Structures are given as structure tokens and as C-alpha cells.
């Protein structure tokens, strides 16, 4: 993928900042073969403190990258429930007034908990992976300036001046892209004169303390929000017997509000002791303590020219209490990574990059509104037990529910990561998409473009392994074509799909690998095209699937991606074919689901006899790829 | 644990052989603080070939040791199903005539598959763990001789002469124990003049070949038994696209049988090609090829003096095809390890060591009978589809079933490891045990002394984590006391249990740690006694368990081991408290389950108000521990 024979100081991308957003971007692009200059102005990874919450869907993502076990090897804390503590109706002190699930069962999560681990350990997992792919983060180096001029140099429009933080050495490099993942005080954002819009005049000063404590407070290993007459605290458990306490020190609603107000560790500990009465708490060790003002701000632009991009905290700042910072950073980076790859590898038109800002900025806006709402929820009294029960029931949100239950369900969906979605555009089909084939299936609550592919468990035919379908294609930068083949006697529609895909100008055949003849027969994911991995799922028992008979050779070449939809699922207990049912697809006729490289559905198409299925796919991909598709006997 | 101030060449144990049995023993004892001399006559771990099958229950064990993720990081093959291929009714070649689950759903396995990974990689996982505990395997060294004389030296009765394999250096060491895990050609067994009894005059010569192949045989990633007019093969998938083929070269039933018959790799490949017709097979690479005669033999004794012990292949040899060798070796070692620990740490009387041979020899006998039966099963035609369906149904074996179904179910139970059991003795209570309290609960099909504790999923109260109960106590050498507390309004029986355990001469208080005052409050598993970890499981929802109110302080000290039995389980879908139900315990009254350090149930006792529960436990432990128990207001 990397351009050959370029000068040594030419890179595909310069990435500034090795926090979560920079590392995720770097790790993806390094795996996909790009040449990266990655710098960070810190001498080493985050030593203590900072972000630490990995939400359920982010854990899926880390697993898809093969990084989950390295994270879990550190034995992070897992938060399954949130407990509420308040003053009792009579008397002093605090009592537990309720609990709720942090990821209730109506969210069909593989890992229904928040994983809490020190950011530095998470960074090191990424750094180790980068090093396997030949990328070293250059430290402590900083960016001193940059220019971007596509006219002067259409291929490498960006020039970046870098310097060792002590000024002893410097270098100037050229790149196709520059990425600013420097955090809230972004030099790149400042240079671009991109403003920050504060969503709300309210601002807070928070204290945060990580440490090992001795306490008889019973919920010290749970996430807790504690309100007392002496103030409020949030408790977050951590790895290695540690606990994080968030203590609000000042709010702009205070009469004497001062965003520079501070507080010593001792003062905060004394406050915590008062709040936790009648329970005792003593610190055996304080690992990290910090005070910081928080405003809810969002960058006006994420890019000006689609060459210099921003992501992560450079674009959005908010309260850390909901544990969203790192997760949002991961998704900013992933969203940009696959789009850069699609463009630079020659698959997508450059305009695909224009979807980065609207997709990710809207998620940030949602996050900020959520953060605001969440703060209010936590300053209110806890809800009645019946409401909590209704809120955690397995039904998805519906219109008839009361406002609290609805807000809770939506919040849980959003904070778990499963509820993050993208609006209609070229890659997220909708009825107003340029592709107007009648073969597109309209969005449903189960399966909709812009939303994640639902999780589903199936049996791999070739080795009878029971597997998680959504994890079967690794994060390889390819679109994932899930062909739900249903269960018809003759597999006619499947044969027609394969025949259509084999036509020279199809979305699939147009992007055949040039090295097709030299590819090992062990290649599982990209034997034919670098841009597609194809999975075929039959709605019948594994033993009834006969690959030689049922699967056309084009699809059978992805032998490790032929599945039987024959595993019972508690979410759809009566379904004959759970995966089909979870997608809302007919167990007889099936359907084709296009999934973007980041796991979000792109389009859903009927699986029909004749040419309509492939024509619809040609139309869909035709709206953003570099080749003209279809036209050989199809409608185009 | 290790005796202080002993001469440098004095060890707790000398272990000869660093295959699965030696490494498991060494790893356990190293973790529990023993001083080990471990030698192996090979210059490095197994480079290729040998055993490679980890059965479901062994994977549980590895997880309990914290070694599972290191194993799984190698991406081993997983066998979920076995396929049968035979000549078609008409015509030539082979056809698939059936499949069955390798670990059917009637076995409640956490990991219902066989894990296949090269033995050398597995050895390295153990070796890395050993090194963390300061033990290095000394290579290539061999044993030249030994004596054992308890009269001459009661504490260190064994003297062992060791030598570098090239004879350049040697040393003589003293030890409390000597263990022979040297494989089938055991020097130690020979020196002890312990004979091998061959169960059956039949012997075989097998060829085994590991390699990477190119084939259109559709089940190459499954375990297969293939019978054809040209001979028989067993296919076992391996990691890294490898496959193992077992080919029978000769059998003592052949007219010209010669146990030294051999065959070249090329001859075996040619045979395999003929057998697999009409499918093609080519080898891209052969990693390992070996021919070996197999007899089903068992050592007459595993020890003569309970100081010099044998285990693993030194004691039993059989066909490798059922993938039992490594698993049996693991369990030999584990069985011996905890007993040596119990004796040397001052908990159990020395006679506990006398249970090693009968427990493990009977399992080996069962294995040999199974191996014999298995060989016959595989040489027969496959069963009818209806039989296979009946055999894989979720019901446990019952009397009314036909012989095939019954054999199949028993075989699956045994080979998965879940069906391995030990007969009644001092540690496995039965009605004929010296402890005769009426509080003992009789064995049931769900829960019986000598059998594994059933798997059960529960919620940990302190942090609301959903956990696997059977994994909650790590392999720490301690007895596990599972107090199923049921759900009574006043927890009276629980309070009486705690009061009884607190009495000075109870089984529990008698073995209080001498360093009790200096133990960190973070100590989760052994805060009071090195010999017990105590878990308390309530049959009510987590939110209804209030530790301060419901759990007596003695039990609440194990705060991380207080659970709520509130997780739905598909095996007992209608149960209100699944874990209680899976144990066959009353959801109201509960019961106390003593589990040996190796995960096998020792005794089950009613949980009753008054002193009877603790009295029964005092009687049970009193039969094999070093202290006189009970007698303060109890019956003893």
C-alpha cells in the first residue's frame, strides 16, 4: 500500500500525540501498511491517572484488533452495576437507595461491563502492537509548525516541522496527512484557528484521586454516586485494589465560582471522609491526584482541507465521569483510519473523507448533550425502584415509556457504545441515497445503515467451531459482506449473487487483487480483493451445509467464512435461525448485509434470483468508489 | 513452607522429566513455596510432535492456574465435532457418514471442545510460570541413581545422583521426595523394579505425521476417522494450518505382525493419498513424522514407599488417538501435588499420600479400558443417525439407553475430563467413612464426593461481577469450602456455622495462620488459614444480600467470595437459584460443600442450626488432618 521509492522524509501520515486517539489511528494504519511518523511530547506513556474506562463496545473493537487479551491480562476492574447512595430519610450519614446495571440486558453486549484500567497500560498495549509493525513513537518530540498545500504538491501536500522538546534537534517531513491527537490544548487546532464552541455556560472544577484505600464502605468495588449533606463523590473501582474518587470542587452555579479554584489532596480526602460517614476511609497510598476545570466544548471543525485532521480531546472536552473520553477517541480514529485507507489504497473517491467530520462531530454533540443530562441525572434524587426495574428490562426503548426510563435506556445504549450511530450519507444507505434499486431493504430497529451489525453466534462450517460472527473478520480495513443465505432448496439466489460478483465490472471483481495468482491458499480474509471479506451464513444446521454442493466457488473460496446459523440465542429464544432473526432477515430468503470496515452497517439488500442483488450493490458502492461499476447486463 | 536453613543441596523434591506431568507438579509446588530440583535430559522443550490435545476439563484447570490465556494466545485448533468417513454403499472412495459432538451438551463444560496445540508450546507456558517462581529446569541432565531410606534420614530420606548427559558434571542432592515423570522408558521405575502389566495382548504400530497440506477434503479442519478399502486414518487439526494424521501401520492381529515394522514418510503419504480418494492431498511441509509401537500397559505400582513416586507415561501407556495422555499426566501431577503440600505444610497426616496411587491408578485403568473400547468403536461402522442424536441429547446417561448410546455418553464424559472420578477414601466421604454424623448428605448424581464440583455462574456481591464459581478460588493448594447459604429469613444456620468454625479446635480455627496479624486486608483467599478458602453463596438476588447484615464476620472476611445465586442457567432453566439447583441443594436451606484443592468434592454436609454442621466437618477433616478436632461442646 505504501508508495514505493519516496524520499526518506516522506510519510503517509504524521500523527501528533500518542494518547488513545493517536495510537488507535497509528495502529490501524500501521497494520494496513502505511508509513507513519508518530510523535509525542511526553518522554513516556501516561504514567498515572487520566482516562481509564473501556466501554462494552470498545472491548469488542479491541478484540477485533486482537488486543483484548493483552488488556485483560492486566486484570482490570469490571463495573457491572452502579449504586446510588444518599442521605437517609431520617438521621445522618448515607444509605444505598438503589442500583442499576451499567449495561442492562436489553443491550445485547458480549461484555456487559465497563473495563477500568490505567490509560498508560492501555497505551502500552497499542505501542507494543505498533512496534510489531515497525512503528516507534518518537519521544519527546513536538510539532513546531506545518503547511498544507494540495496545489503545490498534490500527493504530499503537508509539510510538518518537528522538534525535540529540548530543542536539540529538529526535522522537516512531508506527508499526505497530518493528524492532531494532542488533547484539549491542541497546537494544530490553534494554528488552524478552529474555535471551540461551549455548549453550555456551566463549567465545573473537579478533583480526581486514584489510590489504595482501607474502608468499610461496602460498595467500594462498585461504581457509586454518593450524595450527602457534605457534598458529592463518584467512586470508580480500578485494577490492583485501587479506587478512583471524583469530587466536585466547584461549579459555575456557585456564587463565588472561580474556574481556577483548587484544593489539596488532604482537603479532598477530608471532604471524602465527611461524605462517606458513617463509613470510614483511609488512604494507604495515593497514586495520582489532579484538579481540573471542565467545560463542555466542541471544535467548530475537525478539518479544513481533509488533509489535516483533528480527533479525540482536540475536538471535544467534557466531564470524565461517564468514562466516554477514550472510547470516543477510539472511534474518531477508527472512522478516519478506514477512510484514509479506502482512499489511499485506490478504492474510494477522496470525497469519502468528507464524511469523517459530520459522522464524528454529531457523535460528539450527542456525547456533550448526554454529559449534560447525565450530570443532571446524578444531581437529582435516584429514581423509584419500579422505574429502575422497567428501565433495565430487556425491551428496547419504546414510545410509551416514561421520560426517565427512556432517557436511561438511551443513555445506556449510548454509553455502552452500542447506541452510537451515523446518519445517512454515501456509505450509509437510506431511501434518499443515489442508489435507488428496489432491492435495498429499508432500515429496521434491528438492522439499519449507520448502526452496528448486531452480535450473533453461529457455527463455522469448516471446523464446527462455535464463533461470534461479528468478530470473524478481523479489523483488516475491508468491507465485510455478510451473505445471509437463508435456506432455499436450490440456492439459486446465491448462485446468481456469485455470478454477478464475478462479472468484470462488479463492485467485487473491479477491485480484484493484482497479485491474485500468488496468494496462498491459506489466505482466509482477502484471497481475491483487498477491499472485501465475504461471509456466507446458512439458516440450517451445520451438518446440513455441504460446501461443495451449497456454496458457489467464489464464496467457497472464503471457506473459513462459511457458517451455519444453528446456535440458540436467548435474545431470540424461539427463532429457528437466531442470527437471521437478530438481523430481522427472513430465515428462508436471507439478505445481504454490507458492513463498513469499522463494523457499522452500510446497506442491506434483498438476496434475490436474477441480477437485482448485485445491481443494488454496484449502485451502492458506485456512489463512492473510484471505478464505474456495473453495466454488463445490469441496469447501470 | 520451605524448611529454613537447610544445606544448599537439600530440596523438597527432585523432579525428573519436564514433560506435562513433571511440569504440572513442579508448577504447583513452586507456587506453593517449595524448593525444587527439576531436571530433563533433553536440551530444550519438545521441538515438534508428541501430545497435543487439551481436553475441556483440563482447560478449566489451566484457567484455574491462570495459564489458559497464554495457551490460547498461540491460537490452537479447537475440535467441536468428530466426522466419520467410510466407503459409500455403492462405488469407490469415501463419503461422510455422520458427525458427533466431541463434548456434547449433556456435559456442562465451559469449553465444549478439545484444544490442539503442539506440546512444546504448552511446555513453554509452564516453564515461563516456573521461572516466575524461581525454578529453572536444569538441562540436559539425567538421573544416575537414587536411594530412599526414611530410617536413616526421616526428613530428607531420598538421595539422588544427577549427571549432565555428556558426563561432564554431576551432583548428589537430598530431598524429601523424588518424582519420575520420565515417560514410558522410566529409569526410576526400572530401578524400583516395578513391572508393567499389559492389559491386552493386542499391540499396534502407528505412524503419525504433522504437516501443512493442500487438499480438497472438506473436513480437514475437523477431527475425522476415515475408513476406506485402502486403510484407516485419523485426522486431527492443529494450530498454524497444520494437520496431524494418524495412520495404522501394523496390528498384532495381522498375520505377519512385527512390532518393529516401520514405514517411511513417503510410504505413509502414499497410503494417505489412496485412503482419501476421491479427494486429493499434497504436503506443503512435514513438520514431524514418527512411527511407534503402542501397547496398553500400566505400572504395577506408582510408588513403593510414598517418597519416590511415578506419574504420567511412566505409569501408563496407550494409544495417543484419544488425546488423553497429557490430560491424564496433568491430573496425576495435580493429585500428588496437593497431597504433598497438605502433608509438608503440616495439615494432613502422611497417610494422605497413600491415596495417590489408588486414585490415579484406577483412572489409568479406566483410560486403558476406554482406549480399548474406543479402538473397537472406531474400527466398527458408524452408528445410525438416530443413535447419534440420542447420544448427544442433553440428558445424562441412564439405564434404559442402548449400549452404543450409553458407551458413547460415558466415553464423552470420561474423555472430556468431567467424568473422571475417585472412589471413597478418607478425603472422599461415603457412608462407610469414619465420619458418621447424620449431617452428611448422601452422594447424588449432581453432587458426589470424588466427583468434580459442577460449574455454576453466580454474581459476586462486592462488585456485582458475573463470575464462574468453580474458578473463583485459584489453584492455591487450599481446600475450598462452598457454603451454599440458601435463603432463610434469619441466616441462623450460617451464624451457627461461623460460630462453630471460630471455636479453637474446629477444623478451621485449628489451622489459623501464625502470621494472622500481619496479613494485608487485601488478602482475598487465605486471610485466616492457609488450608481453607471459604465462599458463601446466597440463593437470592445480589441487591438483596447485605453483607453487614447477612454474613457473619468470619465469612465476611472473605468479602470477594460472597456471591448471589441469581444468574439464569440454561441447564436448569426453571430454577430460582441455578447454582443451588445444579448442586442439587435446596434453595432455602442450602448446604456446605467441601471441595479438595484439585476441584473434586470431598464431602457435602447439611447447613443446619446448632452444632451439627461443624461437627460433621470436624469429623471429616479429623479423619486425615494432624490435629485432634472438635470436642468443645461438640460430639467429638
UniProtKB/TrEMBL annotation, chains A, B:
Keyword Lipid biosynthesis included in the entry's annotation: no
Gene3D superfamilies (alphabetical): 3.40.30.20, D-Amino Acid Oxidase, subunit A, domain 2, FAD/NAD(P)-binding domain
CDD domains: PHOX_C
Keywords, comma-separated and alphabetical: FAD, Flavoprotein, Oxidoreductase
Residue span(s) of domain Phenol hydroxylase-like C-terminal dimerisation: 421-627
Gene Ontology terms, MF aspect: FAD binding; oxidoreductase activity, acting on paired donors, with incorporation or reduction of molecular oxygen, NAD(P)H as one donor, and incorporation of one atom of oxygen
Domain FAD-binding: from-to ranges: 11-370
Similarity comment text for this entry: Belongs to the PheA/TfdB FAD monooxygenase family.
Designated name of the protein: FAD binding domain-containing protein
